[in-house]
Structures are given as structure tokens and as C-alpha cells.
Design a protein that fits this description.
Length: 160
């Protein structure tokens, strides 16, 4: 019985170790994607009443998108963060990871969808659900690109 318990404990340890190696590999791949040189960069700005959103999109060799977005919305703390995603047809599905205001300790993550029409990107509205701490668009629910606040137009990129 003692040998069986020891064997099970050893098996569990090997299982955890293999999970850890897989996690490390994913972390390395994510870091490589962030440091990869983009093949193109586009900058956008959206204005709605007194709200201003600035978006920079980098297209990588593998077709993935990375970039930054700043959201200055009236009577709310400024949101600054990174956007990562990919185009599926004419729609960019992305994840926006950001900090809000002066608090740099807490990060938030929201799904976003942008419809590309000519040189314009339209930020869609969709029903979002949370599952195990992560937010997702509800599967099967349409994303509205008609009744929206934010329509991004291309602007010249400015280095800060």
C-alpha cells in the first residue's frame, strides 16, 4: 500500500512538471510574438462627443495583429493597453489588456471586434459573458457594427 501511494505521488509530480514545461513553451511563444518586427503599422483615431480613442495596429508576418490603444472617455480614468488578435475576413477579433487611471497594479482584459470598411475600423458592440474570470463574446449572438459610437479613421502615425 505504501509503494502504491508513493507511485501515485510520483506520477502526479511528473504530470505537474510536464504541464509546467508546456506553460513555459507558451510563454516563450507569446514573448517572441511581442518582439517580432511588424511588416506594417497603421494608426487610427476615433472621436465621439468628448471621447478620444487612439489605436495603433501592427501586422506581423504570420498575419496576427498586435498594437496599442488609449481610451480617453469623458468622466472616466484613461485606459492604456495592448491589443492582440487576428483578422477573420474583414473583422479583427482582438483582446484588449489595459490598465485604468493611475493604478498600474490591476489589469483588465476585454474582447473587441473591429469591422474594416475601406480605411475605417468600426468598433462593434456585442454581448459579452464571463467564464472562469475571462470575458468572451457570446457564441451565436451577433456583433452590431451599425449602432456604434466609435468609428476609427486612419491618421498619420506619430512616434512618442
Amino acid at each position: 500500500m505504501k509503494n502504491l501511494s508513493l507511485f501515485c505521488l510520483l506520477l502526479i509530480c511528473f504530470g505537474f512538471e510536464s504541464c509546467k514545461k508546456n506553460e513555459t513553451k507558451k510563454t516563450v511563444e507569446a514573448t517572441e510574438a511581442l518582439t517580432e518586427k511588424p511588416i506594417s503599422t497603421e494608426c487610427y483615431k476615433a472621436l465621439y462627443e468628448k471621447d478620444t480613442l487612439d489605436l495603433t495596429i501592427n501586422t506581423l508576418k504570420n498575419g496576427e495583429i498586435s498594437g496599442t490603444m488609449e481610451m480617453q472617455i469623458l468622466n472616466m480614468p484613461k485606459k492604456v493597453g495592448e491589443i492582440v488578435g487576428e483578422f477573420r475576413g474583414d473583422t479583427l477579433f482582438a483582446s484588449y489588456t489595459f490598465t485604468q487611471g493611475a493604478n498600474k497594479e490591476i489589469t483588465f482584459k476585454n474582447p473587441m471586434a473591429f469591422l474594416k470598411r475601406g480605411k475605417e475600423l468600426i468598433l462593434g458592440n456585442g454581448k459579452i459573458e464571463n467564464y472562469m474570470g475571462a470575458s468572451y463574446f457570446v457564441k451565436g449572438e451577433p456583433i452590431d457594427f451599425e449602432r456604434v459610437k466609435y468609428k476609427f479613421t486612419t491618421v498619420d502615425c506619430v512616434d512618442n
